[in-house]
Amino acid sequence: MADRSPEEIRQSLVTTREELSSSLGELQVKVGEITDWRRHLIENRQAVLVGAAVAGFLVGGGVAAAVGLFGARRRRR
Questions:
Q1: By three-state DSSP, how is residue 35 classified?
Q2: Residue 3 per-residue DSSP state
Q3: What is the largest CA-CA distance in the chain?
Q4: In whole angstroms, what is the distance from residue 10 CA to residue 16 CA?
Q5: Half-sphere exposure of residue 47, counting CA atoms within 13 Å on the CB side?
Q6: How many helices (H) and strands (E) does the chain have?
Q7: Rounded to 10 degrees, what is the CA torsion of 67, 73, 75, 76?
Q8: CA distance 17 to 12
Q9: What is the Cα–Cα distance from 30 to 11, expressed in whole angstroms?
Q10: Residues 6 or more apart from 12 whose CB is under 8 A from it?
């Protein structure tokens, strides 16, 4: 390492910068793909619809139970 010329060191730095620039570009593309939630929704449409149906069923059941519970308390008074 210590026996490299200044020109070899400069060239090594240039090569490293180019590799880092390329890696950064690839990383930006990958982050863009990972954070593309619309594409993920389209690709997993069935799972999303099932999850939404289950969530709606649970929320609806919870609301119905709460209304029934409060309605029963009012009737007892």
A1: coil
A2: T
A3: 95
A4: 10
A5: 5
A6: 3, 0
A7: 160
A8: 9
A9: 29
A10: 4
State mean pLDDT over 7-25: 96
Rounded Cα gap, residues 56 and 51, in angstroms = 8
Q: Residue 64 — very low, low, confident or very high, per pLDDT cuts 50/70/90? A: confident
pLDDT tens digit sequence for 30-39: 999 999 999 9
Residue with tokens 């997993």: 44
Helix/strand/coil for 36: coil
Instruction: Give the helix/strand (H/E) hosting 57.
Output: helix 45-76
Provide the CB-side half-sphere exposure for 62 (13 A, CA): 6
CA distance 48 to 41: 7
Handedness of CA 56, 62, 67, 72 (dihedral sign): positive
